[in-house]
Amino acid sequence: MPQSWSVTGRQFLRRGAFLRPGNPFQSLKPVLWTQPLTPWQLQCIQELSSHRLQRMPVQYILGEWDFQGLSLKMAPPVFIPRPETEELVEWVLEEVAQRPRVIGTQGGPLILEVGCGSGAISLSLLSHLPQSQVIAVDKGEAAICLTRENAQRLRLQDRIRIIPLDVTLEGSWAHLLPWGPVDLVVSNPPYVFSQDIEQLAPEIRSYEDPAALDGGEEGMDIIAHILALAPRLLKDSGSVFLEVDPRHPELVGSWLRSRPDLSLDLVAVRKDFCGRPRFLHIRRSEAQHGCPADT
């Protein structure tokens, strides 16, 4: 790398000028365009470039990433939030704005996130809904610690309860009952079909927690647990919002029809920005049953 290469190493490394959305090279001050890097800065860039050549995700290399306008700390092996998940958050915000009945008695909804990871979903909802409260659960210690740190960085720690919890364990959700019932359950659960794991990019297979990805034979293992337990915690007409595999709308719809005792209906399916059916809206205690709306 030439010694006269312009843009300071600190700016490049800390802000990810070439790599992070919203921080292009052109946004740097003109004085930095011709300022040579110091030997220390060059060494730092070479070390981080070596990590990237080993297929480490850019988010882990930079140590932070943007999600819904928030700068979140990132650390392996915690699941890295994807751009599609920002669309899930936007849909939840639309629903809250359009349906006053999801608003809780304190002026904002009480939201449960299952599998909080870095806290991206929970913290972005808190930042957009000033009166809301969130219960965030995850079975991974690293995820719990990272969500707690990100909440403190964003000064949102007073409105979020972060609880280590494995929803697949019998009776585990009884720990949440004292804080319920909730208005919304939101989750980007592990939904990759087990046979598809080996087809994922090396960045994903080698660095991210497999437990945050592998959803079992049909990608339904954690989804089924969430749906089976949601009626115990949801208010009447409360909603579940899920990010899923494009094959899941049909599978989830069939699964719900086989469990009428849950009183849950798949009411809408939304496509992601690539046109794939990616998000599900499931509602409790709907009086009328019918085909979900494709939005």
TrEMBL record:
Q: Which reaction does it catalyse?
A: L-glutaminyl-[peptide chain release factor] + S-adenosyl-L-methionine = N(5)-methyl-L-glutaminyl-[peptide chain release factor] + S-adenosyl-L-homocysteine + H(+)
Q: Mind telling me which GO cellular component terms the entry cites?
A: mitochondrion
PROSITE patterns assigned to the protein according to its UniProt record, in alphabetical order: N6_MTASE (PS00092)
Return one GO MF term.
Answer: peptide chain release factor N(5)-glutamine methyltransferase activity
Q: What is its EC number?
A: 2.1.1.297
Domain Methyltransferase small, chain residue ranges per copy: 111-196
Q: What keywords are annotated for this sequence in UniProt?
A: Methyltransferase, S-adenosyl-L-methionine, Transferase
One Gene Ontology term from the biological process aspect of the record: methylation
Signal peptide stretch: none
Q: Looking at the Swiss-Prot or TrEMBL record, what is one Pfam family this protein matches? A: MTS
Query: What is the designated name of this protein?
Result: peptide chain release factor N(5)-glutamine methyltransferase
Identify the taxonomic lineage of the organism of origin.
Answer: Eukaryota, Metazoa, Chordata, Craniata, Vertebrata
